[in-house]
Amino acid sequence: DWATPMAAASDGPFGPDPAFDARSISDTEISFDWRGPCSTALLYLASREYRARPGHEKAVGVYPYVVQAAARELRERVAAKRQLASLYETRVALLGARIAESERLGAGDCSPRELLAAKLSLERARVVALGIRWSVPDAEAALSGAQQATEILVSQRQFAARHGIRCYKE
């Protein structure tokens, strides 16, 4: 029912909800036909109503062609993210496994900053890779950053293991 307000699924109290990703959106949610809650005519009329309220006179109107272009761009972004979602999940899982292995080898005691940086970078990459707010190039850049942080951590642990440097608890 279009009259029922939709919950703001994409934003939590601390910003974008990581659980809200490209796989959770149906094509009908991006539909802007005249009968739906996001019809271009309805959005235009709502923007005019908003501008008519005191204090909102300078608000920019939402014109139908802009809404249609935005919907088209969003559909393309979601389609691209859906195609790459399993690849991104695999990359994130592999990086997570490498971080866990480094942690098992004592990275928490030897390289706590690098471990934290790798974990934060990986979580950011997961959110960007699966979220619809970011483009495919943004996802690739975030995953590359997470891979680089993970490689720094792993290389330090491998160096320590090769040279017999033991800083983890026994």
The major β-sheet equals:
2 strands, antiparallel
Strand fraction = under 5%
Spatial shape: elongated
The spatial strand order of the largest sheet comes to 1-2
* Class of secondary structure makeup: mainly alpha
Query: What's the count of strands?
Result: 2
- The whole-angstrom Rg is 23 Å
Q: What is the straight-line distance between the termini? A: 61 Å
Number of helices: 5
Low-confidence parts lasting 5 or more residues at pLDDT below 50? Answer: 1-20
Secondary-structure element pattern, one letter each: EEHHHHH
Mean pLDDT reading: 76
| Helicity, as a percent range | 55-70%
Layout of secondary structure:
Elements lengths: L10 E2 L2 E2 L23 H13 L11 H41 L2 H4 L1 H19 L5 H27 L8
Antiparallel strand pairs: 1-2
Key traits:
2% strand, mainly alpha, 5 helices, 170 residues, disordered N terminus, elongated, 61% helix, two-stranded antiparallel ribbon
Describe the protein.
This protein has helices at residues 40-52, 64-104, 107-110, 112-130, 136-162; strands at 11-12, 15-16. With 170 residues, it is mainly α. A two-stranded antiparallel ribbon has the order 1-2. A hairpin with a 2-residue loop joins β1 (11-12) and β2. α1 crosses α2, α2 packs parallel to α5 and α4 packs antiparallel against α5.
Provide a short characterization of the protein structure:
The chain has 170 residues and is mainly α.
